[in-house]
Amino acid sequence: MNLKSITLGQYYPVESPIHRLDPRTKILLTLALMVAVFLVRSLVGYALLLGFVYLAARIANVPFKLMMKGIKPLRFILILTFLLNLFFTTQGNVLFHWQFITLTDQGLKLSVHYSLRLMFLVICTSLMTLTTSPIQLSDGLEILLSPLKAIHFPAHELAMMMSIALRFIPTLLEETDKIMKAQMARGADFESGNLIARAKAMVPLLVPLFVSAFRRAGDLAMAMEARCYHGGEGRTRLRVLKFTRADLYAALAVAGLLVLIILEGRLLPAGWLL
Amino acid sequence: MTEERIKVEEVSYAYEEGAAPVVKHVSMDVRPGEFVAVLGHNGSGKSTLAKLMNALFVPTEGRVYIRGMDTADDERLWDIRREAGMIFQNPDNQIVATVVREDVAFGLENLGVPHEEMLGRIEQALRTVGMSAYAESAPHNLSGGQKQRVAIAGILAMRPSCLIADEATAMLDPSGRAEVLQTVRSLCREEGISVVWITHFMEEAALADRVIVISDGEIALQGTPREVFPQVERMRELHLDVPRMTALAARLRAAGMPLSDRILTVEEMTEEVKAALCPSN
Fold it and tell me: Taking the model in full, what pTM does it have?
């Protein structure tokens, strides 16, 4: 494992108009897209959505395959959702009946709907996480959540924690590597044995790692205080987020999609292609 | 300006009430542009003394003033920490951000400096420590010495008048150590920043304007390096070394060679030995 070239999260670092969008725009538009997923009534709507995300992936310079990859870890949940809806829906016309198994047209519709919805939810969020660096995401979230400070929601603290975590991931990985080598030099074996044996072997790795992480946390807190850190109040920021014309276009595109999907639900005769 | 930048008056400090103090009745001051080295073996209280100067700790007894501001005064806390910047031993554990220039900005963000002003200050601070080329780098890809320079830039951007370095070179390799020390010395000479340099490296202390030796929380010796280091025996009693050349000179002198007791560096040693061996030249 090359520790120096590790990438964090899913971020796919290329240049594109979508990468340059304001993270706030991307977060809000992703939410809008998720709403759109739930408004879809027919296969035509899903086709629209698919076309939209495919186009977005092209503009973002992100391989479409990479976006689909997010679905893979969900395959069991997808299959389960599909089967449960298929077998346990009793409404509608019976298509097939054998002993205790009953398949209805309604059940088939629902299972296709639910699985497609799940898939599109994942694809839409990957579109955001692939094109937005974690630090930008936390900046965006901090600002979007800042109105909640009125009810004592720690928006700034969360963002700060996130950025410190990101800062220390490479440091701690390096340290893990060091401790592992030190333990291996003394005969520790991390690779063989069954799951339980391997989990046990991790203990002498995790204990020193935790101890050092706590020590680092103490040091860092002191260093931050020494540099006048006193929470989010009265703080200015080096990274300023700015809405540009591109953000407007992106918002319009998503709004257009939403309108089309709503129209599709209203205009097409009920039950047409699902 | 003759006013002291840092004034420590009869300060004692104990970590807990009733516990034995780790700093006992220390008084010292640091003048503008002065480079003061604080020496002491492990557990002598030198680190605690450093933290007292940045209001991270408040004295149990006595007072610490930074440019006339009492560190016990909560109202001035952020002014004090801005004036007396502090760098720590572990270069990794004081860098907050994932990109160098954002780390330099951290202090400025905390002070509420406007965005436009920040950019210039960051640029200037990075230039001063010679790290401009790394502005967009990730800190974990830098060497230890570079990380310490970034930490120094983070302090410099806040425009402090004092820099307190708590064993800032202890975890660095020799070249990193030289690089950091040189950066700090030039800040001291060129920008007139007062430096309190806490260390256990004698060679570093030999470059200071003044050396203060702490033992068991008390000041055991102080003066210019040339006043302090020739007291080889006294330093040994305090479990401290003297610069290698000073130690060598002391032994040669004991063996009968006519050397002065003011030798600190290799160059001075060469000169004196030359003079002693070939008096005719």
Answer: 0.83
Spell out the long-range contacts of A106-114 with Cβ–Cβ below 8 A and sequence spacing 24 or more: A109/A274, A110/A85, A111/A81, A111/A82, A111/A83, A111/A84, A111/A85, A111/A86, A112/A82, A112/A274, A113/A274, A114/A81, A114/A82, A114/A85
CATH of the domain at B171: 3.40.50.300
Residues A52-103 pLDDT 10s: 999 999 999 999 888 888 788 888 999 999 998 888 887 877 777 777 777 8
B66 located within any domain = yes
Chain A CB contacts of B97 under 8 Å are 163, 167
What is the C-alpha to C-alpha distance for residues A231 and A2, in angstroms, rounded to an integer? 35
Residue A216: its chain B contacts at CB < 8 A? 90, 92-93
Enumerate the residues of chain A whose CB falls inside 8 A of the CB of residue B98. Answer: 135, 163, 166-167
A171–B81 C-beta distance less than 8 A: no
CB B102 within 8 A of CB B180: no
B74 touches A: beta carbon within 8 Å: no
Out of B81, B101, B113, whose CB is closest to A236?
A: B113
| Cβ–Cβ below 8 Å for B109 and A236 | yes
Token digits for A171? 């440091």
B138 in a structural domain:
yes
- The greatest distance separating any two alpha carbons of chain B, rounded to the nearest whole angstrom, comes to 67
Q: Tell me whether B170 touches chain A (CB under 8 Å).
A: no
Encoding tokens for residue B71? 């560190």
Of B56, B154, B158, the CB nearest to A225: B56
Strand B218-223, strand B23-30: pairing: unpaired
CB atoms within 10 A of CB A159: 21
Which ipTM value was assigned to this complex? 0.88
Tell me, yes or no, whether B280 lies in a domain. no
Q: What is the pLDDT of residues A171-217, one digit of tens each?
A: 899 999 999 999 889 888 888 888 888 888 888 889 999 999 999 99
Total structural domains in chain B? 1
Domain of B187?
A: 6-242
Q: Do A163 and B88 touch (CB under 8 A)?
A: no
Domain ranges of chain A: 16-132+244-274, 134-232
C-beta atoms of A227 and B54 within 8 A: no
Residue B111: Cβ within 10 Å count: 22
Nearest to A223 among B93, B102, B158 (CB): B93
